[in-house]
Design a protein that fits this description.
TorD-like; single chain; Molecular chaperone TorD; chaperone; about 0% strand; mainly alpha
Length: about 200
């Protein structure tokens, strides 16, 4: 939605927590974590739910991870010599190539919602970190008014659902994943929760 839309929607506590988790995943997938972020992750606690267990596991690994180790892992996974172990882009997961139709469709939807790429970001917009950040921003209204659940569902179904679960599963199993294996588990479980929540909307 364009900024200044007069129909401002209240954002529930549940939606704020959803947005926080999307932003958390986006932060971890955009760059290696600092010591401050690792300390914050190490302090997280979870309940007995699948997501709570994944968060507990992530906290345990963060306690024994230092920034240099996290950076080596991030580089091996996502950058590498020429390319990393994983290519975290919708176009690649859906077509086998970068900068394909899924990216063009995303750019059109971003333009329609008034979402623009930050000037210091040079990655294609269909990378997983950007999509997590976009979804979190739409929920709480960072790009204008908060998106309705129906609009969230439309964006999620079009740009995240077809591939993010596969990506997070791959991240869990990646040869170079240690800290990021736990990030993969948390992301995969969260995508399953979102899928079920959006499915229930249709009933």
């Amino acid at each position: 939605m364009a900024a200044g839309d007069p129909q401002i929607l209240d954002v529930s506590e549940e939606d704020r927590l959803r947005a926080d988790f999307y932003n958390f995943l986006g932060l971890l997938l955009a760059a290696p974590p600092s010591q401050m972020l690792l300390d914050q992750i190490a302090g997280l606690s979870g309940d007995d739910s699948d997501l709570g267990q994944a968060i507990k596991a992530l906290a345990r690994v963060a306690k024994v991870t230092n920034p240099a180790g996290a950076e080596r892992e991030f580089t091996a996974l996502f950058i590498g010599l020429g390319r990393g172990e994983l290519l975290p882009y919708a176009s690649f997961y859906l077509t086998g190539f970068l900068n394909e139709k899924p990216l063009a469709q995303l750019r059109a939807d971003m333009a329609a919602r008034g979402i623009t790429r930050a000037p210091n970001v040079f990655e294609p917009e269909d990378n997983i970190a950007s999509l997590m950040e976009m979804m979190g921003g739409m929920i709480v209204g960072r790009f204008g008014a908060p998106a309705s659940l129906e609009d969230q569902k439309t964006f999620w179904s079009r740009h995240i659902s077809p591939w993010a679960g596969h990506f997070f599963s791959d991240l869990e199993a990646a040869e170079n994943s240690v800290l990021y294996a736990s990030v993969g588990t948390a992301g995969r479980v969260f995508m399953e929760i979102e899928r079920e929540a959006f499915r229930m909307m249709a009933e």
